[in-house]
Amino acid sequence: MKPVAIFRHFPTEGPGYLATFLDFHSIPWRLVKVDASEALPSSADHFSGLVFMGGPMSVNDNLPWIEPALALIRQAIANDIPVLGHCLGGQLMAKALGGVVRKSPIKEIGWGEVSVAVNAVACEWFGELSVFEAFHWHGETFSVPRHATRLLSSPYCENQAFALDRHLALQCHVEMTEKMVKTWCKIGVEEITGSAEPAVQSIEAMQTDLAKRVPALNQVAGRLYAKWISGLG
Description:
This protein has helices spanning 17-24, 66-78, 88-96, 120-126, 178-187, 189-193, 203-206, 210-229; strands at residues 4-8, 29-33, 49-52, 83-86, 101-116, 131-142, 149-154, 157-164, 167-170. By secondary structure, the chain is of the alpha/beta class. It has 8 helices and 9 strands. The chain has one domain: Class I glutamine amidotransferase (GATase) domain (Rossmann fold, 3-Layer(aba) Sandwich), CATH 3.40.50. The radius of gyration is 16 Å and the shape is globular.
């Protein structure tokens, strides 16, 4: 089986629980360290799937790897190679498919409830689940591209996820581990304390009940990842 390519855009925003899930299911994967100036592959055909992780930059920034990433996403989708995006990764997918990424009216940082859309595609991905608590860290939001279907919404962000056939784009973070939450709080302390927006939690609130919150989120992620890997060649 060809490996899954996982693109990391920032050192602390790695695959998290996704790596654990892939290892458990004996699915090979390769980490492409974009943050360390590792070149993106020229073709998606070398991989069974592509995964794009998060990062503090914008897909609208003038960075040398943005256009190659967009081209790679388009190529993968054209060739029926499953693509999965987390936060920035979801925004890359949206832009690659003709959507728009812009500043969100309200920044979301911390734990927050998301609602599953009532449609057949959402049911395929989430089953009977109607609501769950996700982790958020974003100041931008994407539009749902043409032919894609909205899957999730939150009170502060209308478009939290969309699907197009076997491809899944997420605005929220489902890949979190306890270590990742604590690390992000540590390096993001200035952003957290410097914001008075209603959807930005305190560090204390974000780190409350992690022993319960993270496994619950992992369970949701596991369902999404299980459906996603079912499309791998």
